[in-house]
Amino acid sequence: MVGFCRANNDKISEADIVIIGVPDESKSHAKRKGASKGPDILRVASSESEFFERNGKTIPIVPMRGSIDNKQILDYGNVKREDLYQLVFFLVSNNKIPIVIGGDHSITTIILEAIGDLCGKIELLYFDAHPDFVSSTRDYYGSVITDSSRSIDFQKSMLIGTRAAEAEELENAHKVGLEVITPIDIEELGILNVADKIRSKNNNGKKYISIDLDCLDPSFAPGVSLPSPCGLSSIDLIYLVKLAVGTGIIGIDIVELSPDFDINNITAFLAARILSESIASMKLDRNSRKT
Question: Is there a domain that residue 3 lies in?
Fold first, then answer.
């Protein structure tokens, strides 16, 4: 297995950030299969697109903002779905930031359960074309918010990029006061006003970010499990994620990369860039680290 190109640490006790692959799509109902290949393909893409080679040297590209220097990054490798809860609980309790690569979006339910059991209700920024707030069916990739509701502070949370919702999902969001930001809202309000909304939701760093790559318009990310037209642009997504990450997070995931439907690896390369730019904007709190 090819590791994440910027990993620079092999000891979990010394790591600030731990990357975990979960090559599982067992809870997906998508007709387009292959999200289980996402973690490994993202790692390969990071090695192919994040460096230049010249005169026998490998030269990493510099993030647009922030820095990866002096951040200790461990690529833990891939884990089974049933082992994810315990690993995330351990990492967060020891002040590590888990970055989980899927796989289908249902793995977020496991992550939020682990974090919620440790930290209580948290702020969730959920970038997705779909609200994943189905309640008539449970325990699948379309019921993540329903299944995770006891771990979410809905007043502090947001759905961003929503544009392919079922009526019951929007009704459920309205009932709990969960703010929904559609791509049309971003067009009307402007990216800076949406950024202000994210800042206003800040829950003292008790924030988790979940990125389903189908939040992006298919012109930027064709290689996803359930593409939907009229999505976010790549730079709008990266801008908002970097902003949110910079105010402090508990963890982040990137899911639903479906390489079999990608075109010239553009979705995989973009996912790798989202990962690197997120790390570059992370603020670390080493003072409370346990070993």
Answer: no
